[in-house]
Amino acid sequence: MAFRIDPFFSRRGFVALTATIVLILMTGLRIANPDFLVAVRELTFDYYQRFSPREYMPAPVRIVDIDETSITEIGQWPWPRTKVAELVEILTQMGAAAIAFDVVFAEPDRTSPTQIRASLPPETPASVQEALQQLPDNDERFAATIASAPVVLGFAISDQLTGRTPLKKAGIAYGGADPVTILPPFPAAVPSLDALQQTASGIGSISVSLDDRDGVIRRIPLITSDGTNVYPGLITEALRVAQGASGLIVRTTSASGEVDSGTPAITDVKIGTFEVPTTAAGEMWIHYTPDRSDRYVRAMDFYEQEKHGELAPLIEGQIVLVGTSAAGLRDIRATAIGELVPGVAVHAQALEQIISGQFLTRPDWASGLETLTTFLIGAVFILMLPIIGSLGTALLGGIVAAVLIGGSFYFFLEKGLLIDPIYPSLSVFLVFAAATVMLYFLTEREKRFVRQAFSQYLSPDLVTQLEKAPEQLTLGGEIRPMTILFMDIRGFTPISEQLTPTELVTFLNTLLSPLSDAIQAEGGTIDKYIGDSIMAFWNAPIPVPDHAEKAGRASLAMLRIVDELNEKDAFGFKARGLKAQTVQIGIGLNSGDACVGNMGSEHRFNYSVIGDSVNVASRIESSCKAVGADLLVSEETRNQAPELAYLEAGEISLKGKSETVTLFALIGDEDYAKSEDFQKLSQTHDALLSAIEAGNAKAAHGALTASQQSAARLSSFYAPFAARIADLPLAQNESSAAS
Length: 739
Fold this sequence. Notes:
This protein is of the alpha/beta class. The protein is built from 26 helices and 27 strands. Pfam families: CHASE2, Guanylate_cyc.
């Protein structure tokens, strides 16, 4: 049974290699941290907030909303600076701790007398121009009002150069690395008018995180940089001014004592008495609450004197943020909990968090932890897969994913930590999926290999079993108890001399095909065809517990097949008038230990069996003609399948063996062994053997006659017994006396 194999890794090695490659790729991808991974991670954190939004706690933060109604009543935005100055005066009188504008006053007031005079045509009467010149400038009026109020102005970050920079109002100290070397520089800024900046108490950036490219605002910068200077954010300045603090303190990893990734990062910003944890880029994660109407006061209400009494308690001691919810002013933002809110509300929620101390943090070491977790868990799965199997690994993967997600959500709820459980879980799944796919591929390839290699030698049932458990096909060799069959065509040489080569091949195929089917039907493995002979064995590569019995039944079936083929003249010998009218075969069976396995070179081998038991089986088959039996078995085979019908042939000397062996003619199956005919034949045959052994020629002759009468078809088998009786001394004397 020869076939070729290519050298390749073991199935386990290939699966482990594939899983390892996927794990390395996934770990490398996590280290690279492309934008789509960031998006998936942040979406996970968004869902955490949706499942558990921040619990609202009252805080001294109020929004003065320039809403649609206020614009309708007061006029199109931007309002005259005198109107804005009036609002500042009212808020200051009501006791606002800080007034922060989430707007930028970048251009002069178009309604200011100065701007109107500049836009007049040359033919305008001089008296009109002089009258306008005498009127106070709106921006100057606004600047004067700001000078006496705790006002924080905003500036916007832009990608278009303006040639202007914001003024610095807050002193910024730092511990560790200079924040300028850490913060990503913004290209340009759009600040308010210089006159306004000079009188303001604070100036801060109103822009949100540049990393929130998908439109969802998750972070807000506490500090920013243009590559030369560090500037505070709007809420940072509002909180500083409200406390009367003169500056900020920025700490980085080298000064905080935190474990870091080796790259300098900002860890927190101290604003007066408030210490705020930040991202590496100095941003604060926002933990949202659902938007609330009690945060807002309409701007138009402050211009109605009769409402001041009820508004004053809402403003006193509050950090007031002035912004807009009007859709036309395009400052509507999406939050992590899926709401659309005015941009000023984002600043308000950030201030509420700082004041209440309810922070979300993603430490600098989180990314390294997630990468390490991805690799370690993946490595454990690769090691566990061959130990606990695919199902066990899948269950373990589910448990690990549940622990990762549950643990991450627990730390979010209890500690405000943002740790990504999705990527490690997804990586484990992909490692498992890759290993499973490769295992399936190799298993299917192994099945094809087994089917191609053994379909010609094993029954379909055995091939299917071998496909399911290919590990039973031991490469190399192993000692197994086996039953070996040799079959040979009697008188093959005279037959072959009467046939052409083509006819001879047809004859062999006609005979050997059904005989092979009979072997495979009983679970046998065909080792090889040797000219007109068949060598087969049982109990390999698939274990066959009753291998001796199956070999015996297969051999009996082979004899019946030959009789049927002869009766039908399947070979055409009778039709062609050949000398050989029928075909006879001889079969020898032996059971015993033998070495079975793949034998040959690395590239081409035979799955075969060798050993003394094989040699004995071959010698037994060679003895069939001398014994006069079509089917002979060894005593070991008979002992392993005692339910079949046997007749002892006696002790025979086998070629190459120094000691005689006892052989048995197998003449029928279990049913025949239980029949009265066989019971009678067995008794007379035993009597024959006993008489011969005792040297009683007369009794032996009588038993022989009785046996021949009971089984006329065994005349060839009993012919040698007649010769043995004739050789007995008493038989010779009786023969002389009779003559």
